[in-house]
Amino acid sequence: MPPLCIDGNEAVARVAYALSESVAIYPITPASPMGEYADAWSAAEQPNLWGAVPGVLEMQSEAGAAGALHGAVQAGSLGTTFTASQGLLLMLPNMFKIAGELTPAVIHVAARTIATHALSIFGDHSDVMAARTTGWTMLASSTPQEAHDLAAVAHAATLSTRLPVLHFFDGFRTSHEINIVEPLVDDDLHAMISNDDLIAHRRRSMDPEHPSLRGTAQNPDVFFQAREACNPFYDAVPAAVQGAMDTLAERTGRRYNLVDYHGAPDADRVIVLMGSGSEAVREVVDHLVDTGEKVGMLVVRLFRPFPTAAFLAAMPETATRIAVLDRTKEPGAPGEPLHEDVVQTLATAVMTGDLAELPDVIGGRYGLSSKEFTPSMVASVFAELAAEKPKRRFTVGIVDDVTNLSLPTLSDFELPRPEGELSAVFFGMGSDGTVGANKNTAKIMAESTGQHVQAYFVYDSKKSGATTVSHLRFSPEPIHSTYLVEQADVVACHQFGLLEKLEMLSVVRPGGTVLLNVPFPPEEVWDRLPADVQELLMERDLKLFAIDGFGTARAAGLGGRISTVMQVAFFVASGLMPMDEALQAIESAAEKTYAAHGPLVVNRNIEAIRAAADGVTQIDIPQKVTSSWQRPGAIERALEIRSVTSDDVTELFERVTARIIEGEGDLLPVSALPIDGTFETGTARWEKRALASEIPIWDPDLCIDCGKCAIVCPHAAIQIKVFEGDALDDAPDTFLCKPFKDRDMSDHLLTVQVAPDDCTGCGVCVEACPAVSKESVGHQAIDMEPADEHRDRERDNFRFFETIPYPDRTTINMNTTKHTQTLQPLFEFSGACAGCGETPYIKLMTQLFGDRTVIANATGCSSIYGGNLPTTPYGTNAAGRGPAWSNSLFEDNAEFGLGIRMGIDDQRAIAEHLLGVLAGQLGDDLVESLLAGSGAGDEQGLADQRERVEELRRRLADVNGDLDASARQLESLSGVLVRRDVWIVGGDGWAYDIGFGGLDHLFASGADVNVLVLDTEGYSNTGGQASKATSRGAVARFATSGKPTPKKDLGLLAMQYGSVYIAQIAMGANERQTIKAFREAEEWSGPSLLLAYSTCIAHGVDMRHSMDRMDLAVKTGYWPLFRFHPGAEEGTRPFKLDSKPPSQPVDDFLTTEGRFAVLERSDPERAAYLRGLAASDVKERWSYYEQLAGVERRLTDDTEVSS
Amino acid sequence: MTAGNGAGPRPTYSFTDLEEDELSGAGRIVPSGPGAQGEVDLTATYLGMHLRSPVVASSSPLTGQIASLQALDAAGVGAVVLPSLFEEQLEHESQEVDRFLGLSSDVNPEATYGYAPVFEDYNRGSVQYLNLIREAKAELDVPVIASLNGSTTGGWTEYAKMLTNAGADAIELNIYQVAADPDRGGRDVEAETLDVVRDVVGACDVPVAVKLSPYWSALGAFAQRLVGEGAAGLVLFNRFYQPDIDLETLAVGPRLVLSNSEELRLPLRWMAMLHGRIDASLAATTGIHEPTDVVKVLLAGANVAMTTSAVLRHGPGHAATLVDGLRAWMEARDYASVEQMTGSVSQRSVTDPAAFERANYLQALTKYSSEYVT
């Protein structure tokens, strides 16, 4: 079988699938793709090694997946799951059980950071280290090839040893690195898996033909002994694993050992580590040994049970200094786990006489959260080992100026360049296909030239306008560089605008090549470059190539997808292959890649490829700087376009956030970062990403003051203000306004203003605008127009707009769209996808209640666009008030929010008690009014209570003597005397699946909390996997063949409590119902649940029509609107249907959503079958709701309705 | 004005005198001629194919599903025309699949594989259509005609070849265009269409029919030129989905209105005028709802009567009503065969050919006034 050019996840999934019968899955980054592959292959009925199609079952959480795995293996099946990070932690209880019962099973882990002061999706070993006490065998892989091979070793060893195996490899660095993998063929796998072991496993299964009892409860008399009974099985593991490795070596020639030593046979300095970092160490060791240094490295592949004998045998006797590197942190421990194991092993060997002298062993941490681990860092570790008195504990790769543990990185250390290697770095944007093109390039090079390739991709955390950086290496020799390209032969900038924003050319090697995608003719290129870029091109004697990538792609009918065009341009600029061969290979790759997309798409790509070859131009470098502008920094950019002075920029923003925005986060020292993960809010407004090529432009003559544009804007980039005429005194000439059509505010003016640098250009506002020109229906009160033509003017206007004060909240009619949209959004300019259906709900919530809200946010899209560094869209009003936001976990958000409520209420109880204690000093009137006003939720009541609290603080300042302590306590608690709302926000993956248990408990609690479920009907953040909110017939990851079961009705489930306020809302269908539901939910004194239909890019629709999709969902009965008010009185009907009976067939909705329609293309019969069932679901649900709407409240006694 | 009696070898009469009750055999006009006794021969010849009846199921959703195709077959149709394969639609769907598969892939570090599951193969529209041809060929006893609406020169021939290779017995080119470009005159449009027909005829080894709209100037001459380029038949006429304005949204969109018998007159005229004048089969479509409609178009010169709206409205079984009605009418008048009656009232056959040209409207008006205006 020819070599494959695949990433680590696929490399592992191929083996795991072939060797499994039952696969339990649940999405978590970066392990999700393994489950996705398994699901897709199962849906395509691809057989495993034994000819059967493995069953693949998505569970509600990793805890569920582990439970299902436990059951499957107890039933005698070959069971597997995939996970990472918190997911692995949720599996721990079952892992103890599976190991304790000596049951074969395998978990493949794309090792990822555990959330502590912050969540991180990136890679380190903190998750697997938390599992090291479970009794599972633990195998570590360093490369995609190793991960492929050791996956087979894991499955073989678990059967032969009866112990379950946790096989791990580094998240992203290995799981997502594309490299050459020599695949194991069926004969290899058959050779490794013992049939006898398999049969023995099945014979041990729970079987009523041969019944047995497992999972007993044991008492102190026997538990301990029984626990020790497994010891021989652990003793046998090293030999069994080595045996599997030996078989693999016989079959493939690829030799692995439990512990592998590499380096000088007589090394005095040795580094010990696991995982991908060992590849970087290998490069340095080879180089240093070549230069005569006596160094070596020891890679631990079997971590549990720790192979002491193999370790001692592998370690050179000459080693006197050993550095053990751990990719994890165990605060408070004398050393990190591997370090401790090594010290223990060596010390024991000395004690038993197996080792003459104890080497000096130091321990260090590296690479947390995928922090780069480069040759210069490795060199600094070897340098430290050579120091007279090396640091006992250290870190490498960061600057620790607090506890001074970090080693200095040897910046002048450089590895010799491998002969024939070419490396390249590409800067692009997510939607332009840069990454896809580079994946293709890697495959072309691997398949056409037989070269070794490596491709690794870095993404930023934004969902709209995200930048991608691709790192590619090509070499005749195997590539071990498990770190980003540090010196590139070619740097390609696929988006000219990024040249201004990012420092990208510093990575280009002197004499190297720069390739630019430019939206102008070649002769203009030089003069349009920033001065510093021109200087660098000259200084480094670089070659410069340019192509109008977008023009070429557009001409070929490919719209904004420049992938194939830039791919060709790269081959031209790099000279990587003779062009005729390259073109042939690229065309052939395009045919393969796009075959499933149809001949039209293939032909257009081929046309683009041919045009691109002629479109690349080499630009002469004139050896003089002609440009006068320098690239501005984040702060400069923000200052330039906002009505602020540098005094307005916070110190933290300037010192930390701005540098992260600028891509300099790696340079920040320990002291720069907040110690507990706490950051300021209101920072997204400083980013000014200027993404939009078109922005909405307002025509006041047509505007009808409806406020729809503002309420639907996902990014708060259209805002409305109502003001009196004198506010316009300093207005720019271009600032537009119109008389406000309102009976009570007839003397006011209204303006609708775009934030031109914060708009993503999604166009949702334009689609929502109902005000159409009588003369030309194509012209509305808001039209999208080219940003370049309007940006400067709108910047001026927006700058002025921000100086106009927001209205007094007590004067606002909170029931209408047009009035609520004059309230300040305390959630603006998020990095959510353009057209996001979720964010308008959050924004509205902050407009209505943001100044008194605490948000518990489940992990997911909303936590990423809400709280992923560098910035947050949550902001504050002029008084400094705004949402306080936190994310605990994915699975516990309801409990977290409930706890917040409990914490607030308990503190208020203390405060109220202290008011009583201090009433004599404070005055009875004030105390009584404070007590009476602490629950007030209306705007006037809130304003009055805030004033009373201010008065309270003034009076408390004068209290001293015996009551001083009580006064100071009350002072610290006084804030909770003003009503505080708790909003629990999350997606459907949380609410319907992983967090449902907690949510259910919250419903039962009766607590005054508000739950906002942003229902996209799938796991949007992790790539669109199916959840229980996914509708029947929808295709999603983990539901490749279309979800066969109907959507769970969460509202109905919650309704059974009778005490939960529930509303199903869809802003695009009825924004007034949405506003009403938000207000009723907030007012209800018990739990409230808002189920908010949220259009998502995973639906396969044009997000410009985000709101139209909601409207159609409601009109077709797909998403009925309703409110259930538990406060309804006897004889009234608490369930109100707010939408009309379906006026269009649901097919009109289903057939126009990609997620449903795509099944029509892949499996028309199943699509038709499921669509029929989906239509029945809609009818039945509507019928049931109609009946519910007629049900009258019957109270069981004469007490008040429970709250 | 009435047509003359016995002026030629075939019976002649006015179409407007044909009434429903004649199908019962109680008609006022008794034709004479051979084959007055015995089983009538309903077979027809269309595009060189021998059909068991001259009633053909035209392109419609009913001919897009095997079950309804089988029902049409059972109802006695002579052939079926599958729904039109629209090149533009295929392109659109291809682009949609491309967009969906490429949707936001490689944007987000947590969704690096995109949001859509990757299938090994997406059965694009053309593949489904080819499968429909294959299945229809396997399941039906009658010829299967594939219909194609291309939009590019290459597309017409490429897809026509695919349809032929999949087993279509004939190709119907659905020339559906609105010549709205102010810079392109009628000559250009005609030339382009003739090119398409020539290319497709050259690329396919099955007969090719051309379905036209009535909006061509000098249709007779154009028809002749189409035949000159190799068209084996003409299908008259295409009904455009005319746009409409939604007064709620002020959006413009197509609106489908099924035809009625009143629309028969236009194809009827052209059947009569072209019959015997061009060397090609003629298919009348639009307005064939009742057995009388079938009779009329055959008399006028159509080789087959194609029906869409009526079977959509009444179901596939309605084809049997049409066939049975035709048979009854023929039996009542002792017609031996469809061939015998085909074109018997065509322009060439009637005593006053001008009746089909300008004078016909005068007659209609006269009759109208004589019946309702006194």
Which labels suit this protein?
heterodimer, A: 1203 residues, alpha/beta, 9-stranded mixed sheet, 8-stranded mixed sheet, 35 strands, globular, disordered C terminus, B: 374 residues, TIM Barrel, 8-stranded parallel beta barrel, two-stranded antiparallel sheet, 12 helices, disordered N terminus
- Content of β-strand of chain A: 15-25%
Q: Major sheet of chain A: order of its strands?
A: 1-8-17-18-16-19-20-21-22
CATH class descriptor of chain B: Alpha Beta
Q: Would you identify the CATH architecture of chain B? A: Alpha-Beta Barrel
Condensed summary:
The complex is a heterodimer of chains A (1203) and B (374). By secondary structure, chain A is an alpha/beta fold.
How would the blueprint of this fold be written?
The complex is a heterodimer of chains A (1203) and B (374).
Chain A: E1 4-7, H1 8-18, E2 22-25, H2 32-43, E3 55-58, H3 62-74, E4 79-83, H4 85-100, E5 106-111, H5 126-130, E6 137-140, H6 144-161, E7 165-170, E8 178-181, H7 186-192, H8 195-203, H9 223-228, H10 231-235, H11 237-252, E9 259-263, E10 269-273, H12 277-290, E11 295-300, E12 302-304, H13 308-314, E13 321-326, H14 337-352, E14 360-366, H15 375-386, E15 393-396, E16 422-429, H16 434-449, E17 452-459, E18 467-475, E19 488-493, H17 496-501, E20 508-517, H18 531-539, E21 543-547, H19 549-555, H20 563-574, H21 579-594, H22 599-615, E22 617-619, H23 634-641, H24 651-661, E23 694-698, H25 708-712, E24 718-724, E25 738-739, E26 748-754, H26 764-768, E27 782-786, H27 787-801, H28 817-820, H29 839-849, E28 853-857, H30 861-867, E29 884-886, H31 893-917, H32 919-922, H33 924-933, H34 939-957, H35 964-973, E30 981-987, H36 988-994, H37 996-1005, E31 1010-1015, H38 1050-1055, E32 1061-1065, H39 1071-1083, E33 1088-1093, H40 1106-1115, E34 1122-1124, E35 1135-1137, H41 1147-1150, H42 1154-1162, H43 1164-1188
Helix pairs in contact in A: 1-2, 1-6, 3-4, 6-11, 12-15, 16-20, 16-21, 19-22, 20-21, 20-22, 21-22, 29-39, 31-35, 31-37, 33-34, 34-35, 42-43
Chain B: E1 44-46, E2 49-51, E3 55-57, H1 66-74, E4 79-86, H2 87-102, H3 125-139, E5 144-149, H4 153-165, E6 170-174, H5 186-203, E7 208-212, H6 219-228, E8 233-236, E9 243-246, E10 251-254, H7 265-274, E11 281-284, H8 291-300, E12 304-307, H9 309-314, H10 318-332, H11 338-341, H12 359-372
Helix pairs in contact in B: 4-5, 7-8, 8-10
